[in-house]
Specification:
- The chain is mainly β and 687 residues long.
- The protein folds into 3 domains: 324 residues, no CATH class; 99 residues, Zona pellucida, ZP-N domain (Immunoglobulin-like, Sandwich); 203 residues, Immunoglobulin-like (Sandwich).
- The chain is built from 6 helices and 48 strands.
- 35% of the residues are buried.
- InterPro entries: ZP-N (IPR055356), ZP_dom (IPR001507).
- This is ZP domain-containing protein.
- Keywords: Disulfide bond, Signal.
Length: 687
């Protein structure tokens, strides 16, 4: 008779609210290193923190912590004030407890068994536990929360609470690693810590305390219980959304695409995944369905062999059931001596020479590339093939700053899907560094900049809020940030401008072309000896700059709050770094620099060079309403990345007094008339 392993869980620590830097979730997974290493265990840490996103030194108090941040952190919105994901690794002893943050608010324990198992004649592989997005529950509404685990040895996995507290909050099924919330508990946050352990499969029906686990990893969750009017139906995943627990095998340099679709309109689809995971902006389709696309390229890495991707759909009051999938990095055998893979850059070709001694018991006639029509030659000693980087099924993608061309040599038995003959799957890849791909010695198979975008120019204009060519969009602006927006008209006694809208334009007429603004700086002098940041990577550099969302993709507008920026002079000069981007697929958007950096870009896109555009003098005294400056690159302008960058020609122009300026003068006259009338009345009464 199977024992009922449902245990009453314990209410752990109840918090009043989430504060800056709160740990919303954390997990540790461990793997064994080569036996000749002094430290035989490598730990992989994942941590979800409330915003603002902490730096690694604030989380890892130990030495030799290696940040796995390949680009900007993955971020989410709910629960407020939002969260970010940080990941790092560290070599640790066999038994180890890591204190997270300087105050040791959360500790993660792990233990590895380095002895040889009698049943497998190998060293045990510890279990893996996934870290989900921040868990949100609706008070009074029962819900199951799976703790997603996996073991590569096929061992029995059990979960238990780290320690017992007081009060009932949840139940934990130790056998299925499932949390059951029955609807109780006050509103607030509750922290729980679960130990995940693997046992020999022979103990499946034994009492937990009678068996000794091989190894242990742990996961920490801060669960938020929120108020709700009723137990409404939560958002559901539909369509091609991966099922929970699915495993995707990933070869070296292979790209994984996953589509996630929700049956209703949601605030966000929160995703937790490995470093380098690209998450597309959420789109709303037919019947208010929401969807995102995930992409990940397996490049050279020291990540765990098994990587989890967990996702949940959030509304302001509800969260869907959490799903997790696994990416298993398939281990490959080393290639034999005599193997040659060459990337012929000038010819745009890749060539392979492979000794047949490596291909024993394999029908060489079954070998083919992604495109079976491309020939593969063989004799008694070698297999050879040469194919185009733009054909034969070769795929092109981005891996960080590199351009990656991939193909696969594999054996295909056309007569039967089941065969005892050996099979071969050999990934082939050419990696072109970013600076080399842009250089004159290597021509990638994409159109030239002028052929794609035309002869483009860029310029800068400044307007008061509610004025200028896009006055309709700046009068009642939609801001990227949720911060409160001050009134469009604000007059200060000093006569200084309080707000000014920075407009960045391009004349590009290409459909779907998007203007990308990298950074903008301000200087009180024309030589830009001393500068102050206005934008960094296209995002606000502080509280003094907010982006105004526009309906025109080749225009960017930023509202400058001059007082918050600390700009005290009467005149300023502005310099911005700009470029144009267009994707090769209509369904994709260029990466948003405020959420994902180009290091995470998996979409195929074409970019212009970076151009520097400067303004002329911009007056900050309200003598006139608007000062417009333009800057267009000359025909000989060069990308700023090149060491011999020539300065872009700058022109400036002052506009005549317009209706807005007359409005300012009228107000001043009205104030003067009121003062004269008051003086006259006072004298009349006195007389």
């Amino acid at each position: 008779m199977r024992l009922n392993l449902w245990l009453l869980a314990v209410c752990l620590l109840s918090l009043t609210r989430i504060t800056a830097g709160s740990i919303l979730g954390a997990a540790v997974n461990i793997e064994l290193l080569d036996q000749d290493r002094s430290q035989q265990v490598r730990a992989h840490y994942s941590l979800v923190s409330s915003l603002p996103c902490p730096v690694l030194d604030e989380l890892c108090n130990e030495v030799n912590c290696i940040d796995q941040l390949s680009s900007s952190p993955v971020k989410g919105v709910l629960p407020s004030p939002g969260w970010c994901l940080r990941q790092w690794q560290k070599n640790i002893p066999q038994n180890h407890t890591s204190q997270l943050r300087s105050d040791g608010a959360v500790s993660l324990y792990s233990r590895a068994d380095l002895s040889v198992r009698s049943d497998t004649n190998g060293i045990n592989q510890p279990p893996y536990v996934s870290l989900p997005p921040p868990v949100r529950l609706q008070a009074g509404c029962p819900q199951e929360i799976p703790v997603n685990v996996m073991d590569l040895d096929g061992d029995e996995i059990r979960c238990r609470y780290e320690k017992t507290g007081l009060g009932e909050f949840m139940q934990l099924n130790e056998e299925t690693c499932t949390l059951l919330y029955e609807g109780g508990a006050y509103l607030g946050q509750y922290s729980i810590q679960i130990m995940v352990e693997d046992f020999p499969s022979s103990v499946k029906n034994q009492i937990h305390n009678e068996a000794k686990p091989f190894s242990t990893v742990s996961v920490y969750l801060l669960i938020t219980v929120e108020s709700g009017s009723s137990c409404s139906a939560v958002p559901e995943f539909i369509g091609e959304s991966p099922a929970g627990g699915v495993v995707i095998h990933v070869l070296p340099f292979e790209e994984v695409h996953v589509n996630i679709t929700v049956d209703s309109s949601v605030s966000e689809i929160a995703v937790i995944g490995p470093p380098g995971l690209f998450i597309s902006p959420m789109e709303t389709g037919m019947n208010s369905q929401s969807s995102v696309t995930l992409s990940w390229v397996r490049g050279p890495n020291q990540f765990a062999h098994l990587l989890s991707v967990c996702f949940a759909a959030n509304t302001q009051s509800l969260q869907s059931h959490i799903r997790c999938m696994w990416l298993k990095q398939t281990q490959t055998d080393p290639l034999p001596p005599g193997t040659e893979l060459k990337c012929k850059e000038r010819e745009l070709q890749m060539s392979l020479v492979l000794p047949t001694s490596f291909l024993e018991n394999l029908h060489l006639s079954d070998l083919q590339l992604n495109d079976p029509a491309c020939p593969v030659f063989y004799n008694t000693t070698h297999v050879t093939t040469t194919f185009s980087l733009t054909g034969c099924g070769t795929k092109r993608m981005h891996l960080g700053s590199e351009l990656l061309y991939t193909n696969t040599l594999r054996s295909i038995n056309p007569n039967s899907t089941i065969s005892r003959v050996a099979t071969l799957i050999l990934p082939l890849a050419c990696r072109i560094p970013g600076q080399q791909a842009k250089g004159p010695t290597f021509k990638i198979s994409v159109p030239e900049e002028v052929e794609t975008f035309g002869a483009v120019s860029f310029w800068i204009e400044f307007h008061l809020p509610g004025e200028g060519p896009l006055a309709a969009e700046t009068r009642l602006p939609r801001m990227r940030s949720s911060q409160p927006v001050r009134a469009a008209r604000e007059i200060r006694a000093t006569g200084r401008m309080d707000m000014l809208d920075l407009h960045v334009f391009s004349n590009c007429s290409l459909d779907r072309a998007e203007l990308m603004v990298g950074r903008c700086v301000e200087s009180e002098t024309e030589d830009f000896v001393n500068t102050r940041p206005l934008l960094s990577h296209g995002c606000s550099a502080g509280n003094g700059t907010l982006e105004i969302l526009t309906s025109t993709s080749t225009v960017r507008i930023y509202r400058l709050y001059l007082g918050s920026l600390g700009i005290m002079g009467d005149t300023m000069y502005v310099e911005c770094l700009v470029q144009l981007c267009v994707t090769t697929k209509q369904s994709q958007r260029c990466p948003d620099p405020c959420t994902e950096t180009t290091d995470k870009t998996i979409v195929n896109s074409i970019l212009t060079h970076n151009y520097t555009v400067r303004s002329g003098p911009v007056p900050l005294i309200k003598a006139t309403e608007t000062s417009t400056t333009t800057a267009k690159p000359t025909p000989t302008a060069k990308p700023v990345a090149q060491p011999s960058t020539s300065q872009v020609t700058t022109a400036s122009a002052s506009h005549a007094l317009d209706r807005g300026a007359f409005w300012v003068v009228a107000v001043s006259l009205a104030v003067l008339l009121l003062q004269l009338m008051e003086n006259f009345v006072e004298r009349f009464i006195a007389d």
